[in-house]
Amino acid sequence: MTQRILVTGASGMVGSYAPGVFSDYELILTDSVECPHVLDVREPADVRDMVGDAKPDVVLHLAAATDVDRCEKEPDWAYHSNAIGTQNVVYACREFDTTLVYISTAGVFWGDKADPYIEFDEPRPANVYGHSKLAGERYVAHSLRKYFIARAGWMVGGGRKDKKFVGQIARLITEGRTKLKAVDDKLGSPTYAKDLLVGIEKLLGTELYGLYHMVNEGVCSRYEVALEIKDIIQNDDVSIEPVSSAHFPLPAPRARSEAMRNLKLELLKIHRMPSWQAALREYVSGELMPALEAKEHSE
User: Fold this and answer.
1) The CATH number of the domain where 70 resides is what?
2) 275 DSSP assignment
């Protein structure tokens, strides 16, 4: 029997890959232009009704407040979406005995560890966004038996709609900018959204419930990511200058390191994520650049 997955926040970056990755499942997408289902996870009755009516085998909970700086300036907004919204989904999954997949973040860590963080390190967030996502984790872990928490790193993906760092750098290069700056004093582990969902699909085939780190392998700075993008695009006219994070002041504090290691995936031999360089190359050359070129030709 085909399993049914209800996806919250399906219109976001990660959700855009769900139809391709979960092609063998029956998908119920919410908040997507391709689907009429609208769901505000902050409304408990609406969440309960949606889960009760859809009767999914799995809820893939992607809906979240992800603007780190807005979260810092509007903490009520952050906690309403990421903590209370997740609590509502958790209670509905508990009532209807539904497996929950919750996407969390490397932002639950303070950033002072020399080595990449593993699942057994104690969380200590550096900003409101991290605190709100950690609160969501705790609702999941304390209230459910059948759940997967997948912590992602610096998100990569989205193609034409990509407004994050990778999309910004690629767009500036294709627009002819020859001098760019990128931060080199913050570390992280990129996560290609498609690889994240592939990893989750592998987990769903097990009953090894619990918390997992799910990032592309390796550690890098934004500066190293920018250099890799330049190499993929093959534009030798571009110079990229490494700068400190003080060069780009932001409302929310950022951890010095958001680097993570997928220790549990390694030990359990469930799924091996590609390196961040391989994932970035696949995304930029196979998805982002064709999207940017198509957009340029259409304008």
Assistant:
1) 3.40.50.720
2) B
